[in-house]
Specification:
4 helices, 165 residues, mainly alpha, binds protoporphyrin IX containing FE
Length: 165
């Protein structure tokens, strides 16, 4: 008769953590890909510009709520795997270190984007200051573009490194 011991329990949690980690990456990076590559050029021509800005003002809070979930899930599940399955910082592969460093850069950029740039953008839209809102939107676009590039690189490094290192 087989018994379910502590080792099996850790293994089961690791499997769940791995699935949640990948799902969080899919939601965050996939969401940025859709916003940046599909929605942005699609709504680019909408006139008057104020209507376009109002659309983004409705899109961002909904998407960013999900990004908050992913930026909490990614480090928790990533460090679970790092410490429970890989033996901690010293033993984890180079690709895992690259992932965590770039992951924290992504999270830092998102927190700045959310707390500073996005707040200013919403304030300007609410005040009807289209020109100033447009300046903030351009900044959001640069930050999301950077995070999208990093997210694709991190995901590629993770998948590549796993089988290569
Ligand atoms: C913030 C700190 C992070 C830590 C500590 C971390 C850690 C890890 C670990 C330990 C693995 C398992 C590697 C393996 O099975 O060999 C993993 C897998 C993965 N990570 Fe991260 N990660 C972090 C952030 C991110 C971010 C920001 C993304 C993407 C946006 C990401 C995307 C992935 C993907 C796609 C995999 C699956 C790779 C595969 O199974 O082929 N990670 N991560």
């Amino acid at each position: 008769m087989t018994t379910f011991d502590a080792f099996d329990a850790i293994h089961a949690v690791s499997a769940l953590a791995n699935a949640l980690h990948v799902l969080a990456a899919v939601v965050w990076v996939g969401g940025m890909f859709f916003a940046y590559v599909v929605l942005r050029p699609a709504v680019g021509g909408i006139e008057p510009a104020g209507e376009r800005l109002k659309l983004w003002a409705r899109v961002f809070p909904r998407f960013f709520a999900w990004v908050w979930v992913t930026v909490i899930v990614l480090p928790i599940t990533g460090y679970w795997r790092m410490f429970m399955d890989f033996g901690g910082f010293a033993r984890a592969g180079l690709y895992v270190h690259a992932m965590q460093i770039l992951g924290w850069v992504m999270i830092g950029l998102f927190v700045y984007l959310f707390a500073v740039t996005h707040r200013r953008f919403q304030d300007k839209v609410a005040a009807g200051d289209i020109a100033a809102a447009g300046v903030q939107l351009a900044q959001i676009r640069r930050l999301v573009g950077t995070n999208l590039a990093l997210g694709l690189i991190v995901s590629a490094i993770a998948a590549f490194g796993r089988l290569w290192v």
